[in-house]
Amino acid sequence: MRLIFATNNHHKLKEIKALLSNRYEVKGLSEVNIHEDIPEPHDTLKDNAIEKAMYIYKKYGFDCFADDTGLEIEALDGRPGVYSARYAGENCSFQDNVNKVLSEMDGEANRKAKFRTVIALVENGIVYTFSGEVEGEIIPSERGTDGFGYDPIFLPLGFNQTFAEMPLSIKNTISHRARALNKFIDFLNNRK
User: Which of 125, 135, 138, 144 is the most exposed place for a label (fewest CB within 10 A)?
Assistant: First the structure.
């Protein structure tokens, strides 16, 4: 079965393909000749995930899925949250976002944080959503070179390696995206 993943983020696509490769053929937007940016105008992860999947479905007619992910930091009242990808500004880099969080967390005793992902599947115009989260903390400085985004500063609860220090094979068993994706896979496997 072929699944279209409504993303242009090659890091996310790599993670999803690693998780689904033995069951499904996953194609990112560029692999099906779609090269536009999809709007994310909403203030919840769920609404943005649905927006992205519906955008592709309505414009191109593909059944597809999309995700939206946010890092929620307790001491920052849940920021960056839905704005995680562009926390330091519209055309910022992953590093800009990490620097902004580290600056805002400088001297903060409460380091609790969680990553949340919502996946939206649009199939024949019907929307299904699946969510996952992982708790952890923001460490004071970056560690590790793998992963992307906030991975170098996020230490998942019960582990001594950041997401950026972990092999993808371990991250893909405990991450927020993996947890949401497992619910998505269970749905796909159990509906027929």
Answer: 125
